[in-house]
Amino acid sequence: MTERLPNFVAGRWQAGSGAGTPLFDPVLGDELVRVDATGLALPAAFAFAREQGGAALRALTYAQRAALLAAVGQVLQAHRDEYFAIALANSGTVKNDSAVDIDGGLFTLGHYARLGAALGERRFLLDGEAARLGKDPLFQSQHVQLPTQGLALFINAFNFPSWGLWEKAAPALLSGVPVVVKPATATAWLTQRMVKDVVDAGVLPAGALSIVCGSSAGLLDALQPQDVLSFTGSAETAALIRSHRCVAQHSVRVNIEADSLNSALLLQGEAPGSAAFELLVKEVVREMTVKSGQKCTAIRRVFVPAALYAPAAEAIAARLAKTTVGNPRNETVRMGALVNRAQFDAVREGLALLRTQADVLHDGATPTLVDADPAVACCTGPTLLGAKDADAAGRIHDTEVFGPVATLLPYRDAAHALALVRRGQGSLVASLYGSDAGALAAAALELASSHGRVHVISPDVAALHTGHGNVMPQSLHGGPGRAGGGEELGGLRALNFYHRRSAVQASTAVLAALAG
Prior knowledge:
Helix content is 36%, strand content 23%. Helix 2 packs antiparallel against helix 4, helix 3 (80-91) packs antiparallel against helix 6 (188-201) and helix 4 packs parallel to helix 5. The chain has two domains: 42-258 and 489-515, Aldehyde Dehydrogenase, Chain A, domain 1 (3-Layer(aba) Sandwich), CATH 3.40.605; 262-472, 3-Layer(aba) Sandwich (Aldehyde Dehydrogenase, Chain A, domain 2). The protein contains 15 helices and 24 strands. It has helices at 42-58, 62-78, 80-91, 95-119, 163-175, 188-201, 235-243, 245-250, 275-289, 309-320, 341-354, 394-398, 414-422, 437-448, 508-515, and strands at 4-5, 7-9, 12-14, 21-24, 31-35, 125-132, 139-147, 152-155, 179-182, 209-211, 228-232, 253-257, 262-266, 299-305, 325-326, 359-362, 369-370, 383-386, 405-411, 427-433, 451-457, 476-479, 486-489, 499-507.
């Protein structure tokens, strides 16, 4: 009988009372494990996290909580090989793609452990300098930030079962806020195993880390005013979350990461084969194929000067043609599967919709698979589309296909290019390519207000840049408009979400005592 993964809530492992939802190998089609959260007493579980986990975490200093993050990282590092095996089986990813998720989570934990150690032996943060409230300086106002006395609920997406947990949990735990994670069902196995290893190691206080695998029913109903909610997923689900009565009536703080039509833009003045041109081609192909294009930061639209449309199409297609697709257990395979049959069908449907307004420049929809049965495996190759009339191709600017699909679009001049990029209505990231520092800087500032991150790639940083789609904990992750309006990471900025700001108005003597 297939193993059923238990949930960890209220300080103990608990099985759901239902039959469970099966998780599958997207390449071989085998059932792996089952998850179920039916019948859990969520209000009591959330109360335990707030009262036990929250109190224990807040009793520690930032430096002590940073040490907990370092200990969690050590536990996870010891089981790293097991996580790669789970990712291969459940997500169908090649090793390099699994590393983006697994090692990315470990790196982020380590980064926040170092940041927290530097905050030292305090339990709250000063926010700015004290400000006089009148002519006499004796009475002043000092803003402070304290950990919220609720919990942090994470409802995560399927594509990053490791990083999606730890990039949120690291700043939450460092802030002193207990975590309840609800991973996407399709890939919950890796998240659950990581939580299990941390729980078994006993490195966190009771109630500091909980996991619910299966349906999200009842999770939002159990939220209270001091809780915070972070969601990564579709815009449709995000809208339902924002309208939920607990969010609307209790003013539960919500962070949303939703759809994003990210762009790559080659500036004018570059020739075919130039260093900047080749950097664009290389990055587009990488972003189309890493994790089979199942990244919220992947490049979906590629903008080039009209004169470079044909050379860019040829160069990108030539690189894509070298991508081997199939079973990631075969070392010759460079791109594995989509996560499941539903995602496979969604990519096919989305591709068909885009093709009504675009030409196919490289067709990877029916690749020759390596060591995989096309009737079973959820594998598809990378497809590059092209629309010569970028203004008329409305669906290209409105529809995100969450897979190995991108569209090449020509532009007339700089103003036209920027206007086309902005038709994405807010994105997580745009990347710029060119060799003129002044032009790159100007374009970056023009696009910054509609993007959470602008990644500028010039020949001088060809070997140094971290990648269009790689989310580094030092930089902001999130974006306005269609991207959800949220903000995560960005170094210590991430702690703002888990703290409450208040102004203490008092004498200078009281404020001096407060500051310690």
